[in-house]
Write a structure and sequence with these properties.
The protein has 401 residues and is mainly α. It is built from 18 helices and no strands. It is globular. The two termini are 33 Å apart.
């Protein structure tokens, strides 16, 4: 067996072990949560997954318009199920998101949450395997912070990260499948705001067409199943309310936002001032993204640059949205470790590792009054795109430009 084949087999074994450990960790986590806990208590139900479960149940019961008729109506339905003392939650997703979570309303709440996390974690691990560096060790360990973050918040970060990774990793090899994934990513449009530009610059016409068709079909099917009124209600009620949440609300969620806008809001600055600070950074960031999309030579480098730019430009994103970025940053860190010692190498490795740690470190730092996420993202981006002469001839590593 050649060294390269042995390295690839070792990476496959490492992935399987990592997947087993992750699944065991989920089982242990839910067992600890359930031990001595009333499964209907706020300890269980005050999770973001409660939104998906309630939404899928309302859709299955033919009451889907309760999701798109205003916050008061939606939250009243949550209180009917979880009690009058249930803390504030809101529904912010477009109607075609229901197509992805509809079956989960058929199960009891806790079982549904476990199945959702396991299924989307498996999807995420498969998508992440497409970006792995087979010769590197410890690649998967840098993904644990994101996995812990998403499990703790019980969010859809595994799902959206998988869709982004499929779109980026398959756009040259399987352009139609990549386009389908990108089309479905419109459930969270702020995550894919730069994807059309990258695809246009790369002239990925098949992927663009597939993304357009899949997004259009998803919207059309949701309108057919749930009614056009679901979409008009989403535009009339949910989008304006989400704007109010972003500009007027305070509290814990502000510390989960990695953007400069989020950092400013977490320091109690008003929305207008926060945006005035954010825009002078977002503008040059967009210019840097365009320049790098043209200059960088490999798809992997352009993909990583796109993800960094996305989270620096978009004012509203959250730590559990960082999954795809963590995967590509971990892959770049792994490639970095395969290189011989060179000037600046340690700094690059540390910054890429710091990006992977953001899902668990950004929150406590922000709560302490030190929102580090914007600086880590910018420095990590600079580290990722800085050219290294050694890359050209080491282990067949691709030239970065």
């Amino acid at each position: 067996m050649t060294g390269k084949a042995w390295a690839g087999q070792r990476a496959d074994v490492e992935l399987r072990l990592f997947a087993c450990l992750a699944i065991c960790a989920i089982g242990l986590l839910f067992w600890l949560y359930g031990s001595g806990q009333d499964l209907s208590s706020l300890f269980w139900t005050n999770r973001d997954f409660a939104n998906y479960w309630i939404a899928s149940k309302l859709a299955l019961e033919g009451r889907v318009l309760d999701l798109f008729s205003g916050q008061d109506i939606y939250f009243a339905r949550m209180q009917e199920v979880f009690g009058q003392d249930y803390p504030w939650h809101n529904w912010s997703y477009p109607p075609h998101y229901l197509l992805l979570v509809l079956p989960f309303g058929l199960l009891p709440y806790v079982a549904s949450g476990i199945v959702f996390q396991l299924a989307t974690l498996a999807l995420f691990l498969h998508a992440a395997s497409l970006a792995r560096a087979p010769e590197a060790r410890g690649y998967w360990l840098l993904l644990l912070p994101f996995i812990v973050c998403n499990l703790h918040l019980s969010q859809n970060g595994f799902l959206t990260a998988a869709l982004m990774l499929y779109g980026l990793s398959l756009r040259f090899r399987r352009p139609i499948l990549a386009g389908v994934a990108i089309g479905l990513l419109t459930i969270k449009p702020q995550l894919g705001l730069l994807l059309p530009i990258l695809l246009l610059l790369e002239r990925r016409w098949q992927t663009i067409a597939a993304a357009t068709v899949s997004a259009t079909l998803a919207i059309a099917v949701s309108a057919l199943l749930f009614g056009v009124d679901a979409w008009t209600g989403y535009v009339a009620h949910n989008l304006p309310y989400q704007t109010i949440v972003m500009t007027d609300f305070g509290g814990f969620f502000l510390h989960l936002m990695p953007s400069l806008y989020g950092a400013a809001r977490s320091l109690d600055l008003d929305a207008a001032t926060a945006m005035m600070l954010h825009l002078p950074v977002a503008g040059p960031t967009f210019g840097a993204f365009l320049y790098l999309a043209w200059r960088l030579k490999t798809p992997e480098a352009r993909s990583l640059s796109l993800l960094f730019a996305t989270f620096c430009i978009a004012p509203y994103s959250l730590l559990y949205d960082l999954g795809a970025l963590c995967v590509l940053a971990a892959a770049e860190n792994a490639r970095e470790r395969m290189l011989p010692q060179g000037q600046g190498r340690r700094w690059r490795m540390l910054m890429l590792a710091a990006v992977c740690l953001l899902p668990v470190l950004a929150l406590p730092f922000s709560l302490a009054g030190l929102p580090i996420a914007p600086a880590v993202l910018l420095l990590g981006w600079a580290a990722a795109v800085t050219p290294l002469p050694e890359r050209n001839a080491v282990n067949g590593a691709p030239r970065r430009g």
